[in-house]
Amino acid sequence: MLRPLRILLSPPKCPLTRCCSGYVSRMRFVNRLQEDDDACAAALQNGRIFLFHSLSPLLQRTNRETFRTSALTASGTQPRPQPRPEHSIQNQDHNQDHNIQYRTKTRTKTRTFSTELCRNSGQNLSWDLLAVLVFYVSDLQPILKNLGSDGSLLKESVLIGCSEQNQAEFCLDVGQLDQAAVEEQCGGTFVDLRKAFFLLKGAEAPLVAKGQALLRWHQTNRFCSATGQPTQRNQAGSHRFCSSSSTTYYPQMSPVVIVLVSDGTRCLLGRQASFPRGLYSALAGFCNMGETLEEALRREVAEEVGLEVQNISYSSSQHWPFPHSSFMVACHASVSPTHSQVDVDHSELEEARWFSLDEITCALQVKAPPRRGDLPVIWLPPPHAVANRLITEWAGLQRHGKDGP
Ligand SMILES: NC(=O)C1=CN([C@@H]2O[C@H](COP(=O)(O)OP(=O)(O)OC[C@H]3O[C@@H](n4cnc5c(N)ncnc54)[C@H](O)[C@@H]3O)[C@@H](O)[C@H]2O)C=CC1
């Protein structure tokens, strides 16, 4: 049965509006787009798109004096909007969203740029801004056309969610187009996610990581592992199907357990030889087939540092895009102070040792990796990483006189 177009284009008003939150209707909307290809294709026409090129997201980097709108023009031939004084971002504006007006050929639009400030490498303490560029499909279509792409490319977008403004959000990899030409037309730069991830605003980083993970999964799962035949994706990109074997494939994450071990007054951190100088993190490892999280956690700590942990408690979790999609489950655990002698397996870790609260407090204050020539300093994974959360939680509990779990 045909549904009215109005319902297809935006999250339906819940019939029980009084008890159904915006969050609930957005989640149901996304769920329906994953189930219904026609609804998803219609939502795409009205949606927002994050662009990638060969899995690198399109970002805009600028400094506080010259923050400028991107070159979004209906024809792609108009000059870019010039920086205007009201677009300048002062120091105190950092970490906020900026509503910026710009003109297309036919109308004035407002686009929200969210920005995160990061320390520049120079000595003058100026700042860089980094923001994800988001396009409305209606703006992107003419740009893609100018770049010689037919309309079929847009259909390769994958659904990643729904904005709080009730617009379906998609990611699209334009790796088949010339990178420099896309950057020029769109007014941004494709930045390797490893470089970009920690410089994006809190809410943007996981969204971009999710988009990249989904795009990567599609690029590496084009064929059925049973029959070798090509698989077909649904419109949302939430699964692929092999009609020869009737197998449905869903995107996968690898479960990883990460644990901060405490002996009551100190916490245990380790570093791999491949880590940058001075970086220490909580112990982590992939779960083996058939293991519970608790079993994986106990095994990893035993293997890596030769300790037996107890009192395991859950903290939080996160999707982690590096090197591929991991599902990180973060826990605290303890050992008795009388059984805290570390015996490092050097095939896994370069070093592991206990850190006092004072050392952790100092390390948490290091906000950027030391630069070449700086004095050696101990630093920790940045706030986007769940390891940082574990360490911060532990430090907070220590300061309030309570140990971890
Ligand atoms: N978000 C965070 O705060 C942190 C995340 N991590 C992540 O945790 C993960 C595990 O950390 P490490 O053990 O230190 O990593 P690792 O990269 O040293 O992996 C250890 C070994 O696990 C095996 N392995 C790789 N992929 C696997 C998979 N999908 N399933 C099973 N085994 C696999 C390989 O033999 C690899 O040598 C890594 O992806 C790392 O990036 C690690 C520390 C902090």
From TrEMBL:
<keyword id="KW-0460">Magnesium</keyword>
<keyword id="KW-0378">Hydrolase</keyword>
<dbReference type="InterPro" id="IPR020084">
    <property type="entry name" value="NUDIX_hydrolase_CS"/>
</dbReference>
<feature type="compositionally biased region" description="Low complexity">
    <location>
        <begin position="89"/>
        <end position="103"/>
    </location>
</feature>
<feature type="region of interest" description="Disordered">
    <location>
        <begin position="72"/>
        <end position="108"/>
    </location>
</feature>
<protein>
    <recommendedName>
        <fullName>NAD(+) diphosphatase</fullName>
        <ecNumber>3.6.1.22</ecNumber>
    </recommendedName>
</protein>
<keyword id="KW-0520">NAD</keyword>
<dbReference type="InterPro" id="IPR015376">
    <property type="entry name" value="Znr_NADH_PPase"/>
</dbReference>
<dbReference type="GO" id="GO:0046872">
    <property type="term" value="F:metal ion binding"/>
</dbReference>
<dbReference type="InterPro" id="IPR049734">
    <property type="entry name" value="NudC-like_C"/>
</dbReference>
<dbReference type="InterPro" id="IPR015375">
    <property type="entry name" value="NADH_PPase-like_N"/>
</dbReference>
<dbReference type="InterPro" id="IPR000086">
    <property type="entry name" value="NUDIX_hydrolase_dom"/>
</dbReference>
<dbReference type="Pfam" id="PF00293">
    <property type="entry name" value="NUDIX"/>
</dbReference>
<dbReference type="GO" id="GO:0016787">
    <property type="term" value="F:hydrolase activity"/>
</dbReference>
<keyword id="KW-0479">Metal-binding</keyword>
<feature type="domain" description="Nudix hydrolase">
    <location>
        <begin position="251"/>
        <end position="379"/>
    </location>
</feature>
<dbReference type="InterPro" id="IPR015797">
    <property type="entry name" value="NUDIX_hydrolase-like_dom_sf"/>
</dbReference>
<dbReference type="Pfam" id="PF09296">
    <property type="entry name" value="NUDIX-like"/>
</dbReference>
<dbReference type="Pfam" id="PF09297">
    <property type="entry name" value="Zn_ribbon_NUD"/>
</dbReference>
